[in-house]
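Hi team,

Below is the intake form for Ribosomal protein uS12 methylthiotransferase RimO from Sterolibacterium denitrificans. Please confirm the fields before the structure is written into the shared record.

FORM ID: S-0412
PROTEIN: Ribosomal protein uS12 methylthiotransferase RimO
ORGANISM: Sterolibacterium denitrificans
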Amino acid sequence: MSRMQKEPTIGFVSLGCPKATVDSELILTRLRAEGYRISGSYDGADLVVVNTCGFIDAAVEESLDAIGEALAENGKVIVTGCLGAREEVVRAAHPQVLAVTGPHAAQEVMNAVHAQLPPAHEPFIDLVPPQGIRITPQHYAYLKISEGCNHRCSFCIIPSLRGDLVSRPIAEVMLEAEKLAQAGVKELLVISQDTSAYGVDVKYRTGFVNGRPLKTRLLELARALGELGIWIRLHYVYPYPSVDALIPLMAEGKILPYLDVPFQHASPRILKLMKRPASSENNLERIRAWRAICPDLTIRSTFITGFPGETEAEFEALLDFLEEAQLDRVGAFAYSPVEGASANELPGALPAEVREARRQQLMEFQEDISTRRLEAKIGRRLQVLVEEVDEEGAVARSQGDAPEIDGLVHVTDGQELAVGEFAMVEITDCDVHDLYARVAPGQ
Ligand code: SF4
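The structure came back. Fields below:
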């Protein structure tokens, strides 16, 4: 999808009793969480979902009429709800409908939507990896808390595409999170362009969540999410002093002891040229302090190699930082000049081979560190969330593994485990990326 194309858009018609409304809300929540836009009219919708009622004849008539209208106005219709349980009635009246499901069938509706209209993915600006959506495992979901960004990193054009930070009201975010938890989601991945900045644009305005006043701020949000009793994972957190207050929540087990902090570099001069947020913070000291409070903290980060003007010494300083920081997971990108980014005007552009060679060198350097971090887990008992089960065992993720970007835990005797459920395992081995484990006794 090009950046200019619109998001996939779903028209939604909801008929029937409060139970049907709850079903509609669940489906709408999932659609929004996956980046679909919801349209109140048929105009501009790529397809229409009709949630029907079949309680009395009049309701059947009304539902069949609504389906007919959606077909006439739009042409692509998925039917769900009570009348959907009588598929033959629907198909007799409207053989052209794309799919028919019964009530409480959010998952089937999502499958039908995916088959007709895959979710959008724009790799440059979307934070949701496409695989995460395509496979749609229902035990985790992305929770987007804001749009846009107030920073102007010199290598990035997101602010010019998406504008300044706009935080979603905390009540709306919490409602979506509660619905997802009720729908059986076991892990929420909090995402945005700059998660630590949540609420800055609305001056941390107080909202009301279940009648309780709550500030639109990351600490309050993390605390409230931590009460849902599921895994809460924070992505795209910049190392501001305010982040320190989150670490005790991690140590207490309220939210996952996991931070995705895109440091991008370690040289103060390069960070300044990059115009990175929190670039003047002493990140090594901060990491040490975080780990003193929460020794199990997993830190993931990304770095850019070969930024314009990066000297050999500055690159070496980056490797020294990695040695000191002992990060758990690291991704690296060779600098690539994005059209419209101000960094392209900087002097000292490096040849593509140098940028790439440094990237490879960094990744090889980090490999040992990541492996040692995993080795330290051998012999430990860890909680995991099960992703897949087959005759060879189970594939799961630990609290230190975000889906799609981090490693996996291979549970070699996990044939009896259930997908989407938590389990306790004992770590027996590791390689560069993954852990190997057995089901813990007493499971
Ligand atoms: S923080 Fe920087 S890199 Fe991230 S979206 Fe904002 S401008 Fe882009």
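SUMMARY LINE: The domain at 140-376 is CATH 3.80.30.20 (pyruvate-formate lyase- activating enzyme).

Thanks, M.
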